[in-house]
């Protein structure tokens, strides 16, 4: 393993809490600090003193300081964050794929908690929570005004305890309570099957510590069942991300050895790095190359990658690498656009700071930040079109989002018009019976995008979207 990788320790992209981040746990601090603005620091100290002495009632000094740190970091971008003791523990649990909670990936929208997607098989999934649901209350606490980490704290707890979430479902225009029993979430990040003779489907719902091993095991099962595989669909829809080494490994499973998978660039020397399809870039332990058991045929099997607006971070790394190397046809909708790197540095034994330190780039040098991956073939989520997906929040919609660093992003009037039309269609859909509006389960016989992916593999006509609008399409290379 290279010197830079030893310094970086480990990197993850995405977060189970829904922050959709790219993260590096780094134990080495910068060798030097920039000169401090003394006048401004004196003002900060003066304000602290005034609040402590003049406020209407006594205040907790430690809380004042941690709130000041939290506010300073949160003002930068949506993914930088101060971790207190509990949130730091929860963050580390999230990347391991094991934690106690309800089992949802979340983001924020209009001050409320938005469900990005329920984790398959979790209590929230069984309770019927859906992507796009807004959580307005957690037990008796209103969500408005809470930070994302505060909301996560309230939803997590001890196994077998209950939490009541008040849900506002936009497409049905109703609010209702859901009581969920917390349990340890052991997310199964890999699913797959032979969908018909000669063709298989593998879905990655997250990139976790066990993902690569589970991926290898699932591929092995598929090839034992179907030795003469003619085509494979890699499904990354609604995959919010996870560990970078897992994303590099999955990419390497399909790519020639030692080609570039992803690169990062920022101010720090260690943030300027290129990850390649080679074991030294994805091996986590001394057990050797986890991909060594994969059948050689996987390197050449015809491949389609399915993505949508919920595909973020690690998902975008994989899709971008396979697209740039022309190893796969990317099919679906433009992805989320989470292309920034966060470094997590411990501030003590149990607190830390997550700070955006770099952007990541596809092998051809394209920034994904605030743009996402544009599929080779745009396909709607159903035969009726993209009724709801265009309404989903993407990175470019988040307040204070980081720009791509390559070309200015501007509001697309065509896209805004399409969203308005989609809102009207969503209202019409909401009047239909629930059974008729339900989006088919991924991998099922009624999965429209999967059917189009199979058509692509077979050389048959694909029903291309006539309505999807690509956001921030214009690009230019960095000099």
TrEMBL record:
<dbReference type="InterPro" id="IPR029045">
    <property type="entry name" value="ClpP/crotonase-like_dom_sf"/>
</dbReference>
<dbReference type="InterPro" id="IPR055210">
    <property type="entry name" value="CtpA/B_N"/>
</dbReference>
<keyword id="KW-0645">Protease</keyword>
<dbReference type="Pfam" id="PF22694">
    <property type="entry name" value="CtpB_N-like"/>
</dbReference>
<dbReference type="InterPro" id="IPR005151">
    <property type="entry name" value="Tail-specific_protease"/>
</dbReference>
<comment type="similarity">
    <text>Belongs to the peptidase S41A family.</text>
</comment>
<dbReference type="GO" id="GO:0004175">
    <property type="term" value="F:endopeptidase activity"/>
</dbReference>
<dbReference type="Pfam" id="PF13180">
    <property type="entry name" value="PDZ_2"/>
</dbReference>
<dbReference type="InterPro" id="IPR004447">
    <property type="entry name" value="Peptidase_S41A"/>
</dbReference>
<keyword id="KW-0378">Hydrolase</keyword>
<dbReference type="GO" id="GO:0008236">
    <property type="term" value="F:serine-type peptidase activity"/>
</dbReference>
<feature type="region of interest" description="Disordered">
    <location>
        <begin position="401"/>
        <end position="442"/>
    </location>
</feature>
<feature type="domain" description="PDZ">
    <location>
        <begin position="88"/>
        <end position="170"/>
    </location>
</feature>
<dbReference type="GO" id="GO:0006508">
    <property type="term" value="P:proteolysis"/>
</dbReference>
<feature type="compositionally biased region" description="Basic and acidic residues">
    <location>
        <begin position="414"/>
        <end position="440"/>
    </location>
</feature>
<dbReference type="InterPro" id="IPR036034">
    <property type="entry name" value="PDZ_sf"/>
</dbReference>
<dbReference type="GO" id="GO:0030288">
    <property type="term" value="C:outer membrane-bounded periplasmic space"/>
</dbReference>
<dbReference type="Pfam" id="PF03572">
    <property type="entry name" value="Peptidase_S41"/>
</dbReference>
<keyword id="KW-0720">Serine protease</keyword>
<protein>
    <submittedName>
        <fullName>Carboxy-terminal processing protease (C-terminal processing protease)-like protein</fullName>
    </submittedName>
</protein>
<dbReference type="GO" id="GO:0007165">
    <property type="term" value="P:signal transduction"/>
</dbReference>
<dbReference type="InterPro" id="IPR001478">
    <property type="entry name" value="PDZ"/>
</dbReference>
């Amino acid at each position: 393993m290279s010197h830079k990788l030893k310094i970086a320790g480990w990197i993850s992209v995405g977060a189970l809490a829904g922050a959709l981040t790219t993260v590096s746990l780094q134990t080495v601090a910068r060798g030097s600090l920039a000169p401090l603005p003394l006048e401004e620091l004196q003002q900060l100290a003066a304000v602290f003193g005034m609040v402590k002495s003049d406020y209407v009632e006594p205040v907790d000094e430690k809380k004042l300081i941690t709130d000041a740190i939290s506010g300073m970091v949160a003002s930068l971008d949506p993914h930088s964050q101060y971790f207190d003791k509990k949130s730091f523990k929860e963050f580390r649990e999230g990347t391991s794929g094991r934690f106690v909670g309800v089992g949802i990936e979340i983001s924020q929208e209009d001050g409320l908690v938005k469900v990005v997607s329920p984790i398959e098989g979790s209590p929230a999934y069984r309770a019927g929570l859906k992507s796009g649901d807004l959580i307005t209350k957690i037990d008796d606490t209103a969500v408005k005004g809470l930070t994302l980490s505060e909301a996560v704290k309230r939803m997590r707890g001890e196994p077998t305890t209950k939490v009541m979430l008040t849900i506002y479902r936009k497409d049905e225009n109703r609010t209702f309570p859901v009581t969920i029993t917390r349990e340890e979430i052991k997310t199964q990040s890999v699913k797959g099957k032979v969908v018909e003779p000669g063709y298989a489907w593998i879905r990655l719902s997250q990139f976790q510590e066990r993902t690569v091993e589970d991926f290898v095991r699932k591929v092995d099962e598929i090839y034992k069942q179907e030795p003469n595989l003619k085509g494979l669909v890699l499904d990354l829809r609604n995959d919010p991300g996870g560990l970078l080494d897992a994303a590099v490994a999955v990419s390497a499973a399909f790519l020639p050895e030692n080609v570039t998978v992803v690169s990062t660039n920022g101010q720090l020397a260690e943030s300027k790095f290129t990850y390649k399809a080679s074991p030294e870039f994805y091996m986590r332990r001394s057990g050797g190359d986890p991909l060594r058991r994969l059948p050689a045929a996987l390197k050449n099997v015809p491949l389609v990658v399915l993505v949508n607006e919920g595909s973020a971070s690690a998902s975008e790394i994989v899709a971008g690498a396979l697209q740039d190397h022309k190893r796969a046809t990317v099919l679906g909708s433009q992805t989320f656009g989470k292309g920034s790197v966060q470094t997590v540095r411990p501030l003590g034994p149990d607190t830390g700071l997550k700070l955006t330190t770099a952007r990541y780039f596809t092998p051809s040098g394209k920034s994904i930040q605030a743009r996402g991956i544009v599929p080779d073939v745009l396909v709607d989520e159903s035969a009726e079109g993209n009724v709801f997906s265009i309404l989903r929040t993407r990175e470019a919609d988040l307040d204070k989002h980081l720009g791509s660093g390559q070309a200015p992003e501007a509001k697309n009037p065509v896209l805004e018009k399409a969203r308005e039309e989609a809102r009207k269609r969503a209202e019409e859909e909401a009047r239909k019976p629930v059974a008729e509006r339900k989006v088919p389960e991924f991998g099922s016989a009624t999965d429209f995008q999967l059917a189009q992916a199979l058509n692509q593999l077979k050389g048959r006509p694909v029903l291309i979207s006539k309505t999807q609008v690509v956001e921030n399409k214009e690009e230019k290379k960095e000099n």
